[in-house]
Amino acid sequence: MHTCGLPNTRKKTPVPPVRKIKILCILLHVHWLCVPLFNLTVSSKNMFSPRGLRPFSKFQADFGPGFGLASCPSLGFLATSDYLHDTISVWSVPLSSDCSDGGLVHVCTLGGRGSKAPMQFKFICMDGLASGYLAFIPDRPRPLLLVTDAGHNAVHTVDVVSQTHVGYVASPGTIAGPRGVAACRTSPLVAVSAWKSNDGHDHVVVVYRGSGAHWGAVRVIGGHCHPQFNMPFGLRFSADGSCICVAERGTGRGSSCISLLRVSDGRLLRRMTTATEMAFDVEGVEGGWLVACRSSQSVLFVADDFRRCVCVVDMFEYMSCAVATMPGLGVVVRHRIHGRGSPMQVLSDGDTMSMWSMSGMRVVWMTAVARGIMCFCRR
Which helix (H) or strand (E) holds 365? Predict the structure, then answer.
């Protein structure tokens, strides 16, 4: 019988309610499995979108005055430096906001005037400007912390887990006035910004290659032959390791800028003068760079092509001096307040903060309910 063009009069079999519940539970389980995998993928890239970032909370702890801030996602650590006491403090980031003291957990404090060499730092040198910038390198068997020491003209390598001094990227006296430091995630490279005189022609970025306690300089960018920097401080490698972004504080209003350099030959690719002075640190995010500006008390976003610069967040009474990303948490900004140390502000989007704000007991309860429903449907 030819039925072409006639409507299908066969009745659809209704889906039993139990099957609907099973399908719902399966989708719920897929969601619970995919979200951690998605978060793991995002964490491995360590790239955040600047869209939707807003101040969420402050970490309350005695950080002291300083410019150093570094994150280590594999260990769950944040490291800070204190130029008043010449110390490094390591903090454990809580997995959620359900923490005993509502902030970071202190792990250890290294250095200090009473400590013995080589774990004796001197972050303020003769010019009165501080060093103590920090960066973690993904070394084996565990990450190591790099510390710039302008007082001893050195860059230290420290194991924060065993709390021991491993060696030097630049041994004492081999680099003049190290300031910022950055480690590449795709190759065994480290970049250090250095200079002694504010208005001299010794402002350079030195690129080192090595691992552990064995490093050697492979390239010097800038200096007397090619003066192109104006008091460089914080710097970061790009995600693919081919470029270095440098924050230059400048000597006056309108002279602060950020520069993008090519690692292979040190060529200056792009430069943008910021609307305000004193750019102290940069951090790579999705589609560009975050810039911590001290005088303007703000965090700026600069696009990859250096054609667009917008203010992400205004810190008002806080002077932003360092910025770092922590996967699963957001962007951590360190501030400097005269007479009140250096608090830290967390910038993140609503979804990330909602997940982080969940207590451990709430996550366990939601998981138990989902699994309970699935067991009931099986019965």
Answer: helix 360-378
d(CA 309, CA 273): 10
Question: Are the C-beta atoms of 45 and 239 separated by less than 8 Å?
Answer: yes
> Nearest 5°: CA angle at 167, between 163 and 172?
120
pLDDT class of 349 with cuts at 50, 70, 90:
low
Can you tell me the distance from the alpha carbon of 30 to that of 27, in angstroms, rounded to the nearest whole number?
5
Count how many domains the chain has: 2
User: Same domain, yes or no, for 26 and 131?
Assistant: no
Task: Tell me which residue range forms the domain holding 31.
Answer: 17-38+360-378
Query: In this structure, is the dihedral angle defined by the CA atoms of residues 261, 80, 121 and 140, taken in order, positive or negative?
Result: negative
Strands 214-222 and 232-237 turn out to be unpaired
Q: Give the residue carrying structure tokens 């350079």.
A: 204
Residue 6 lies in a domain: no
Supply the pLDDT for residue 36: 42
- Residue 70 contacts by C-beta under 8 Å, 6 or more apart in sequence? 78, 79, 134, 135, 136, 145, 324
Residue 354 lies in a domain: no
User: Mind listing the pLDDT tens digit for each residue in 24-64?
Assistant: 666 655 555 444 433 433 333 445 555 566 666 667 667 88
* Residue pLDDT, tens place only, 138-190: 877 789 999 999 999 999 999 999 999 999 999 999 999 999 999 998 999 99
Length of the chain: 379
Which token pair is 187? 């190759």
Tokens standing for residue 352:
């990330």
5 assigned to some structural domain: no
In 10 A of CB 225, how many CB atoms?
7
Kindly state the tokens that stand for 300. 């700026």
